[in-house]
Write a structure and sequence with these properties.
Number of strands: 8
Helix content: 25-40%
Strand content: 15-25%
Structural class: alpha+beta
Largest sheet: 8 strands, mixed
Distance between the termini: 28 Å
Strand order of the largest sheet: 1-8-4-2-3-7-6-5
Number of helices: 8
Order of helices and strands: EHEHEHEEEEHEHHHH
């Protein structure tokens, strides 16, 4: 995490307990799925992986399980499913976290039954295995950045183990804040960002900028939408570059 955000601070780690009947049932289902996958594939290929989400979604997952697939941009889509980053890449999932009222963000460490993993091409809308030989998907089987668990099996193949709470330097004054307040003008941000984004992102951002210039969006709303398009870390880098040049 510190490689991407040097100022990040871990504030708490909460182990997931499954004392209630529903939690015990989810644990039983997960354990049975390990046995089923082992019988079919020889090994279950169970790994640890990260899932980042806003606080309300984290709360819902812990209480009821995963509710649906992750919505991501076209350039980052490797099928329609639940996206988890490998154990060594928590920062990828952290970008989907959002600060709560206390300024904390949350990522869930999960156990994931991968079984046989197939490569899914970028931009794919696949939402189930391409054949009976596969169980889950990934962007790159040899060097994965994302594991993709299909919606039909997400609550059999994923179980949360703990929640890591952290505060990001992105939330400190003068940088990107939860309120999307920044002293820098949208014009400067747009000019800086368009030089470092892929074409599809530039097109999406240009449309938002046109709406802002036409008075259809306030500055805060524009920056909030900009943030969702480019991500916190890209926006923070742009702000830092602007500040260093002033």
């Amino acid at each position: 995490m510190k490689k991407i955000d040097p100022g990040v601070v871990i504030t708490a780690i909460h182990q997931c307990t499954r004392k209630e009947h529903s939690g015990e049932a989810r644990q039983d289902v997960f354990q049975k799925q390990i046995e089923i996958t082992k019988a079919a594939r020889g090994v279950s290929n169970t790994v640890y992986a990260w899932y980042g989400a806003p606080a309300k979604e984290v709360e819902s997952i812990l209480a009821h399980g995963f509710g649906g697939p992750r919505k991501v941009s076209a350039s980052e889509t490797y099928g329609v499913g639940v996206y988890l980053s490998p154990f060594g890449l928590p920062h990828l999932s952290a970008k989907f976290s959002e600060a709560d009222d206390s300024g904390e963000k949350h990522i869930i460490l999960c156990r994931v039954i991968l079984g046989n993993v197939e490569k899914v091409v970028a931009g794919s809308q696949q939402y189930y295995p391409s054949s009976i030989d596969f169980d889950t998907g990934t962007d790159d089987p040899k060097n994965p950045k994302w594991y993709v668990v299909w919606p039909s099996v997400m609550n059999r193949h994923i179980i949360p183990e703990c929640v890591v709470c952290f505060k990001s330097s992105i939330n400190v004054p003068g940088q990107v804040r939860g309120s999307t307040h920044t002293k820098h003008s949208p014009e400067k941000l747009f000019s800086k960002l368009r030089s470092s984004l892929p074409p599809e992102k530039i097109k999406e951002l240009a449309k938002l900028y046109d709406e802002y210039r036409a008075g259809k969006l306030t500055k805060n709303i524009f920056i909030r939408h900009m943030r969702s398009v480019v991500g916190d870390y890209v926006l923070l880098s742009a702000i830092r570059e602007i500040r260093s040049s002033e």
